[in-house]
Amino acid sequence: MVRPRKTSPWTTLRLVLLSSLAAGIVALVASLSGTDAAAPVERPLVLPDLVSTFSIVAFDPETGDLGVAVQSKFLAVGPVVPFAAAGIGAVATQSFANTTFGPRGLDLLGAGTEPHAVIDILLADDPQRGLRQVAVIDASGRAANFTGDGCLAWAGGRIGDNFSVQGNILAGPEVVDAMAVTFGATAGDLATRMVAALAAGQEAGGDVRGRQSAALLVVREGGGYGGFNDRFIDLRVDDHEIPIGELQRLLDMRHAQLLGEEGARVMEDAVAASPADRTALLQQAIAAYSDATRLDPANGWHAMSLATAHLAAGDLDAAVSSAVGALQADPWIKTGILRGFGSLDVVEELLEADEFRRAWEKIQIRY
């Protein structure tokens, strides 16, 4: 395993100052000798503007999902780098990030502009284009990226089928190479594959300055809360010692939430189903709730839903075991059920079991 090399902010500042000084000396020597020199890229000396990071933009042709995942040694990278719109595309803007590239890039994609042309248009009127790093992918999986010659080394990217990976101030090209290989080799949904790519990039050395924040954005038509927007998965870790690990924990919770919703839909179908179909549907619900409980064991409502499904399937012992686990994970469930957030009928059946009754009566009601 290649471990991240620790570089202090002062070291990075010295690199920027020395680079600017060297460029100035070159220009001065050129002017004294009467020769022309290429104009140096002027870097702002306010380092907080430097969103040095590694990221992936990707598309899932099976679901139509589009997304961006990113990690950086930068506070709250989530509001800065990722932009995406369902059915249109995704943009990652980083390295002295020009955040107008996000909405403008999506507008251009929505108008039918292909990714390479989108980047050309975005950079055309940007006086600091040499400092920018940007990646664009459209809803057909076509991708493009750009790394300005003023980005701090190592900086660059790779493009593959339905994705682009890129980064700057990295340990080396092995970071984006590992991301590309891992994304292609990982099974699962788009979010799972993108977070796995981030983890591989970190394992290969990541950002030489360290790590601080991470974010994951996946868009799907009507995939947001209540179906009112397309933000299917929108998770941010603003400040954490292990941001990708924390991002994975949050993704597990989101997957558990989705499984809980799936279980609820199947339970509704089971109510109206024939006896033969009802048995199979209840087993599907039990499987969904079981996975949700495994992914997010601290959320007692998943275990309580699992208890309800077991009870509907006629398995009182399994229902009691799940329900007791639910109360242990979150004692507030008792208050919630009494306030109408759950089924009192289910509780009345469970109270016939001594184990559940003892656990239930031990909990004080919260008002």
Spell out the key features of this protein:
367 residues; alpha+beta; Glutamine Phosphoribosylpyrophosphate, subunit 1, domain 1; four-stranded antiparallel sheet; elongated
Characterise the protein shown here.
The termini are far apart. The radius of gyration is 26 Å and the shape is elongated. It contains twelve helices and ten strands. Helices cover 48% and strands 16% of the residues. The model is unreliable at 1-40 (pLDDT under 50). The longest helix is centred in the C-terminal third of the chain and has 30 residues, at 243-272. The protein is α+β, with helices and mostly antiparallel strands. Helix 9 runs parallel beside helix 12 (354-362). The protein has two domains: 47-241, Aminohydrolase, N-terminal nucleophile (Ntn) domain (Glutamine Phosphoribosylpyrophosphate, subunit 1, domain 1, 4-Layer Sandwich); 256-362, Tetratricopeptide repeat domain (Serine Threonine Protein Phosphatase 5, Tetratricopeptide repeat). The strands form two sheets. It has a six-stranded antiparallel sheet with strand order 7-8-1-2-9-10, with helices on one face. Strands 3-4-5-6 form a four-stranded antiparallel sheet, with helices on one face. It has helices at residues 9-33, 101-110, 115-124, 174-185, 190-203, 243-272, 275-295, 300-312, 316-329, 332-341, 344-350, 354-362; strands at 53-59, 66-72, 82-85, 89-94, 133-138, 143-147, 156-160, 163-167, 213-219, 231-237.
